[in-house]
Amino acid sequence: MDIRINELDLTRSGIISVHRDLPATDTSWEAEYTLGEAMYRVMGSAFHGRPHGRDADVLLALQTVFFRAGCPDSNAIELTAAQLLALSGHARNGKNYAFLRASLLRLSSVKWTMVRTQFDEKKGRHQGETTTTGIIAEMQVTDQATGSQRPFEGRELTETSPIRISFVPSFAASIRDGFFQILDGELMSRLGQPQARSLYRVLQAHRVTSGGSLAGELVYKLSDWFGACGLEGERIDNAKRTLDQAHERLKTEGYLHTVEYQGRGRAGKITYTFSAAPEPELVDQLMERGVTRPVAETLAADHPQRVVPALKMVDERLGSGWKPRSLAASVVDAVRNPAKWGYVEPGVPVSTVPARKSRKAVVVEEEARDPRETIRILLRLKLGRAPTEEASRVLQELDEEAVGAVREAVGRPKDEALKLVRALLNVDL
């Protein structure tokens, strides 16, 4: 079985429910549904409660950090709580630091077994596979509790709390293959409400056909779609209300063209038609540089006006001797982040460029985006002080490949990390 399918199955099997909120007592669930020609049975459990709503934002941020770090072979990343909140699109305040800890616990504790089967006409029997997996193999955070009477209750993270995450191998492999990049971070941030973001994630996963292209239309039995969205067991009017709120937001943003219900009750059907269609020529140009088809089609559909100038910028850097750790990842990053790569997409007036942000906001964004700054932060956490000026200077002068090696090294346990970083930088830290 193609290892990449695990990331799609995470969404296709409704592991992160579209619900905005769920009680902490909701620790197990089971759903059966048919999508296309495949039948699914999902049996999930989560000691700290089923992931839902904004947990999808946190997981996407973790995937982004892992990808930007060069997808280290250790399958592990390390960052601060402030960085993770910034990348998740949430304000840095006490309430969100408490939410972040609870979200990480839900994501780290969820495990599920999925049986996927399809009838083989020639052999006269159902064939498929049974997979038992999770998302996070190991997590370690530094947290605290106020007061001395109840040390294990009300624990929370702080701005500088280090977070170390190790993904399960199959999930890390799916990130290396770029499948999480079928999601448009800009659209996710504009959607606002958790239900709309969660439904967008589910729809994007189901749009990927067996050939890797994005479907322009999806038609499902309503009861099956409820199961795929993690709404199994809900009253039909409540489930439809939850979906309809998200539908309106996705139509307003131009992602969905139409949503139609046909028939009555759970036996009815729901039909989605999508607004954007990718231009084949742009898709081909992206795939020539190693971008997978579903990601290439997503980029060409979401940002067609950026593809050509982004590829031009990448080609210019390659021509000057630049050697990226991953060409495909760099191409995707260039399309997603025009300002970072120094070009303005055609048709966008200079006056529409966002106003200058406060220094505090810029620092938070740079910490979440610049791997060199991430390295400095992690070194400061491991050393208990800022790294030396010489170490910072050498780090700044490294090429992208060397930065990736240092970023991977600094993510290891403290003693091993410091030893490796000293050797790579060849200076006193």
TrEMBL record:
Keywords recorded for this protein, A-Z: Plasmid
Superkingdom, taxonomy of origin: Bacteria
InterPro entries, sorted: Replication_initiator_prot_A (IPR018777)
Protein name from the UniProt record: Putative plasmid replication initiator protein
